[in-house]
Amino acid sequence: MTVDDVLREIKGKVRGVIPPSIDVSDVEFEGALVVIYTKHPDRFAAKEDLIRQLAKLLQRRIVVRPDPTVLTEIDTSEKRIKKIIPPEAEITNIYFLPEVGEVTIEVMKPGLAIGKQGVYLSEIRKKINWSPNIIRTPPVQSRTVQEIRGYLRSMSDERKEILRKIGRRLHRGTSSGEKYVRVTSLGGFREVGRSCALLNTQDSKVLIDCGVDVSSEYNGSPYIHLPEVLPLETIDAVVITHAHLDHSGLVPVLYKYGYDGPIYCTPPTRDLMTLLQMDYLKVAAADAKKVPYSGENIREVIKHCIAIGYGDTTDITPDIRLTFHNAGHILGSSTAHFHVGEGLYNIAFSGDIKYERTWLFNPAINRFPRLEAIFMESTYGGKEDMQPSRTEATEHLKDIVQRCLKKKGKVLVPVFAVGRSQEVMIVLEDLVRTKKIPKIPVYLDGMIWEATAIHTAYPEYLNNKLRSHIFHKGENPLLSEIFIRVDGHETRQKIITNPESCIVLATSGMMNGGPVMEYFKDWAEDKKNTMIFVGYQAEGTLGRRIQRGWDEIPLNVGGSIVNIKMNMNVETVDGFSGHSDRRQLLNYVNNMSPRPEKIIFGHGEESKCIELSSSIHKKFNLNTVAPMNLETIRFK
């Protein structure tokens, strides 16, 4: 049966169920959705059970949209929306998407705009026929979020065609014959960096993550040139667990070389990975390194992104369904759960996980409806890899800062823009507010301000306590007045030469470039100053060398190599990591429900992958493996 046959059959069933009084003008696939266009959206809305009945009959997700001919004119619609939504909801923006019949309304207080049991949404639908979508106005405007949303609006016609094309591929049907599930490790196994794996069935090819190893000179890319991966046009879907470059950094390359399918990720992952990919290009160009893709390729990624929230399930190929669950690592980070076939096999890729409630996020989810196998990280899987609690980490940070400030020194914290910087910000805000350290300026340099603005755009992805503070008390520690944005070279130079004490959070976290190097060059030789590492320092990075106690650091300054004497105090505060330590990884497996038959370990140095695999096999009597890159494992 062809896709056209499937669509004809669906149209017949739809028209057989919907009463003649409701005019159905078209039925079309858009991604995993079956979209029904009608000239009577109000009558459809009045029959609440109709969509449920259709979804059950078709075994597909249904969306009802108004036919473009019945939409009220935009100016009139805007006036009516402002009359319906109470002024105290504080509308900040209204924009329309005629191609899908949707109007997005940005408000300060979404609950008031929606009304009890969605009363205002129903009224808007009746009065203008547009489908309303209420979103919260971010307290700090993120340029990235604004540009992405604006770009998607400007591309709505093209995006509609992309979704229809994806839908037709997705609903092509499955083949008969032998069923199998296999995964090929393409990067990030027995190493940290360039995470990538290929999930294969007899009907599908799904790429999970496509990262870059930024610390590598030669092996920075995953093995996406293998025969089983190529041609890239044969890949059905790409799934990104989270935005860090070692998981998302080379996604645009796929579009450069022929891939034209969907990218599945959470909304914050889409925005953060765009920010990090753009910065990756900027840093590569500044360091005169080969740039692997262009801004145009990044725009293709945005255009093809299908953003889904935690707990939502969607078909991504004819025989695979995807559900994202919170991984606790960074904003929007996910464990990707794949349900293959009609109950044939269930496999999950945890990405990077934090199995502990942190200052920002709830712990990683480890309870699934079904699970036969899971891929897990081993970053801190070694026997000695035990991290202090968040409380102990806070105390340690406080003591170091107090000692440095007593000497009238400056504190430099190399951080990753996404995740670690926001955690450190929350702790510093708490220490200042509770008067445990003096109130001094905390400067944010690099992408930290923009990454923090993206965090404020998605408060629903933060932990319960933080959400409660933001929603019910109107307090957000990330917006404290102690944080000052460094907006360019001139401001940075003033901070560097100012004799007053301060704290600087600057990227990059492993000191392989970025504004942190400017502060380091000037402050390293003064023993009053302190550098604090709060994140993982990979082998081969400058951060790892400094951590190991090198007393002279050769640096390129103005084209010449200069040896910088390391007199500043160097400290490491463990406990801020977004990765689980060994104890948490063991607990994650111990409390997992259901217990998988097989666990596959990657994302760790070779010894840690092997150690953790061996320990979990002995402790839980589970089938475990720590594959090398290029190995293929058959699961079914």
Key phrases:
seven-stranded mixed β-sheet; 22% strand; 28 strands; GMP Synthetase, Chain A, domain 3; 636 residues; 4 domains; alpha/beta; single chain; Metallo-beta-lactamase, Chain A
Tally of individual domains:
4
Strands side by side in the biggest sheet: 12-11-10-9-8-7-28
Give the total of beta strands.
Answer: 28
The secondary structure category is: alpha/beta
Quaternary organization? single chain
Q: Which CATH top level class of the largest domain fits?
A: Alpha Beta
What is the general shape? globular
Characterize the biggest β-sheet: 7 strands, mixed
**Hey, roughly how much beta strand do the residues contain?**
15-25%
Count of helices? Answer: 21
Low-confidence stretches: none
The second-level CATH architecture of the largest domain is 4-Layer Sandwich
CATH topology of the largest domain: Metallo-beta-lactamase, Chain A
Relevant CATH superfamily of the largest domain? Ribonuclease Z/Hydroxyacylglutathione hydrolase-like
